[in-house]
Amino acid sequence: MEINEETKPLVSGSIAYGSISHKTTLADDINENKDDKKEKLHVSKTYWYRWYICLIFAFQGLLQGCVWNTWPAIDDSAEAAIGFSKQDIELLVNWGPIAFIIFMPIYMWLLQTKGLRLSVVSGAFLVAIGTGLRCLPLPNNILKYFIHVGQFLNGIAGCPVMAIPPMLSNVWFPASERITATGIATLFNYFGTGAAYIIGPLFVNEPSNATQNITCWNITKHNTPRNSSCQEIFGIRNEIQTVLYFEFGLASIIFLAMLVFFPNKPPTPPSVSASKSRMSLKRGLLALVKRKQYLVVAFV
User: What does each C-alpha distance from 230 to 52, 77, 216 come to in angstroms?
Assistant: First the structure.
């Protein structure tokens, strides 16, 4: 029918042009509808509580760094009051990178498949449990092992603390704010590592004689020593416990706050790039391995 109508010689020019104009208008309407749909799909919106999400995560990173570096800042006091050796102090610090190397692949998978919430909340839970284990009212010869376990759990929590900042800023912030958000979420962890050297010496005194007194190692709150040297060690242990209780309290508050409110993502993406699907973990790793720049940075 359309071919016959177009080839009719009796149709006037104005009518012919009118029919063509009518068809063009319909096509424009269809294109406009498609554009409207695309605009609706790409609608972006920011929420004020994105800064709460960023700051609560940043404080989690600050605390994780502070807990990780607790013992080097008070090494002499810990050796005298708890019975740690120099090797113990070094191992307590090394649990952080050891746990990071073991569990980082697991958290990479969690981030790709489950999103932010599970990774962040699980990390906060590990810090709370780890700091809680260090506060158990046990003799020193038993407490030492629980402290090691607590430091290992805190080391696992370092995986989301170090890996999440770029993803968090991409999911919650527009492009103009991502550098700021990533910087805050990342740097607070380093601030916490440094803050340990302020908090520890501020609350914990050094022993007058750093030589370990074996007879004082297993004292408890219910077994106050009479020896003056042991009384000094007992006082230092109480000061260390005060710091440990303080860190445990902060870890519990942050964990509960994240458990109550830490969404996977905002209801509406803050930008077009945030709304796009991410590359799978397998494809991402394969693409990364093929990049010479990455290989140079990673292995040279």
Answer: 46, 13, 6
